[in-house]
Structure formats: structure tokens, C-alpha cells
């Protein structure tokens, strides 16, 4: 939409960006399955995990969507081969995640390792998370973020990979040229892995 401006996220906006991700993923099927349905834990886990391993990573490319003068959406992308967590990053994250989700940590690592097996072993960009504040969803914010990022990627002639467990998101990503290339049921949740060829 014309009232959504996409730009880089500054270091000073990291806290609000992580909060947006936490709120947007509070009802995400995989997050809820990981914490056995506890929405508050799902929100905190996503917010904390995003701060440590996504938006706080030196390899992350983070775009923000601004609407009516405030940050309302975030897109994180990482270029291969830095898409998946290293053992060191998992160890760094573990103490924070134990405090956040407790005995559910093995379930979180199961989700991560299952998803990692689908990561293509060739140069590409990996998108995720894409998050829009719940109050701003269905106003074109996610579409604006995706469009802006894919315009950048198309200039590089690079392919893009992502995963989703939300049906309506599959439809959105297909509109941008992504195709489902594999699926896996992880903790009872159908996760689709999607690929967009280089343009």
C-alpha cells in the first residue's frame, strides 16, 4: 500500500522490532506446538530468539515497514551459508531459552534441526521471520516488505528460500513466485518449504 514505507531497521529499533516479531508469532502453529500451547511463552520465546539469532546476527539483513510514522513490520533475511544456527549459536541461545521455555527447549531444537535438513545447499537468501504487528495485519505491510526485499534480490539474480506453517502465507508467497518444494510434519504441524528461482 502507498502508506507503507520500507527501509532498513536501525540498531536503536531492535527492541521494538523483536517485540513485533513476538506479537506476530504468538499464535503461530509451530511456536505453540513447541511450548505446548502456552501463548505467553510462545511470544516471549520468539521475541528472545529473534533478538539473539536473527535480528541481532551480523549476517542478517533487516527491513522494517513504517506506517503512520511507526514501525509496524519486520523482515529478516540471511544469505547462505549463514542461514542455520551453528553449534556455538545454539549454546549461546540455550540459557536464555531455558529461562523462557524451560523443559520445552528440546522441542525447540527438534523444530530447528528438522527445518535445517530442508535448507538448500547452494547460494540463496533465506527469508524469515516476516512479521507484522497484529494491529496492522491485512493492510499490505507484509506485501510491501516482501516486494521491497525481492526487488533487491532480483537485482542480484539470487534465489530465495523460506518456510511457513500458515496456509494463508503459502498463498501470499505463491503470488511472489515461490513454490512449495517439500513438506514435513514437525511436532504435528505441517511445515511447507518454499523456493523462488533467481530472476
Structure description:
The protein is an alpha+beta fold. The protein is 43% helix and 26% strand. It contains 7 helices and 7 strands. Strands 1-2-3-4-5-7-6 form a 7-stranded mixed beta sheet, sandwiched between helices. A hairpin with a 2-residue loop joins strand 6 and strand 7. The two termini are 23 Å apart. The relative contact order is 0.17. The mean pLDDT is 93.
How far is the first residue's CA from the last residue's CA? 23 Å
- Uncertain segments are none
Number of helices: 7
Structural class assignment: alpha+beta
The biggest sheet amounts to: 7 strands, mixed
- 3D shape: globular
Q: What share of the residues lie within helices?
A: 40-55%
Mean pLDDT: 93
Strands in their spatial order, largest beta sheet: 1-2-3-4-5-7-6
Radius of gyration from the alpha-carbon trace, in angstroms: 16 Å
Give the SSE map:
Elements lengths: L3 E5 L5 H11 L4 H6 L4 H16 L5 E8 L2 E10 L7 H15 L3 H12 L8 E8 L8 H16 L3 E5 L2 H9 L3 E8 L2 E8 L3
Helix pairs in contact: 1-3, 3-4
The gist of it:
By secondary structure, the chain is α+β, with helices and mostly antiparallel strands. The protein has helices at 14-24, 29-34, 39-54, 87-101, 105-116, 141-156, 167-175, and strands spanning 4-8, 60-67, 70-79, 125-132, 160-164, 179-186, 189-196. Helix content is 43%, strand content 26%.
Q: Features of this protein?
A:
7 helices; 26% strand
Amino acid at each position: 500500500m502507498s502508506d507503507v514505507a520500507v527501509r532498513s531497521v536501525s540498531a536503536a529499533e531492535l527492541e521494538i522490532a523483536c517485540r513485533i516479531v513476538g506479537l506476530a508469532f504468538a499464535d503461530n502453529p509451530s511456536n505453540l506446538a513447541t511450548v505446548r500451547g502456552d501463548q505467553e511463552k510462545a511470544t516471549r520465546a520468539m521475541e528472545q530468539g529473534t533478538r539473539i539469532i536473527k535480528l541481532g546476527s551480523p549476517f542478517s539483513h533487516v527491513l522494517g515497514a513504517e506506517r503512520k510514522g511507526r514501525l509496524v513490520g519486520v523482515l529478516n533475511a540471511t544469505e547462505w551459508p549463514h542461514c542455520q544456527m551453528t553449534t556455538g549459536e545454539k549454546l549461546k541461545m540455550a540459557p536464555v531459552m531455558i529461562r523462557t521455555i524451560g523443559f520445552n527447549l528440546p522441542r525447540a531444537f527438534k523444530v530447528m534441526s528438522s527445518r535445517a535438513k530442508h535448507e538448500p545447499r547452494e547460494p540463496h537468501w533465506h527469508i524469515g521471520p516476516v512479521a507484522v504487528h497484529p494491529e496492522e495485519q491485512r493492510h499490505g505491510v507484509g506485501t510491501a516488505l516482501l516486494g521491497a526485499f525481492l526487488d533487491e534480490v532480483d537485482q542480484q539474480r539470487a534465489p530465495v528460500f523460506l518456510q511457513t506453517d500458515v496456509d494463508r502465507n503459502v498463498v501470499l508467497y505463491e503470488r511472489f513466485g515461490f513454490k512449495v518444494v517439500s513438506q514435513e510434519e514437525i511436532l504435528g504441524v505441517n511445515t511447507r518449504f518454499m523456493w523462488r528461482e533467481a530472476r
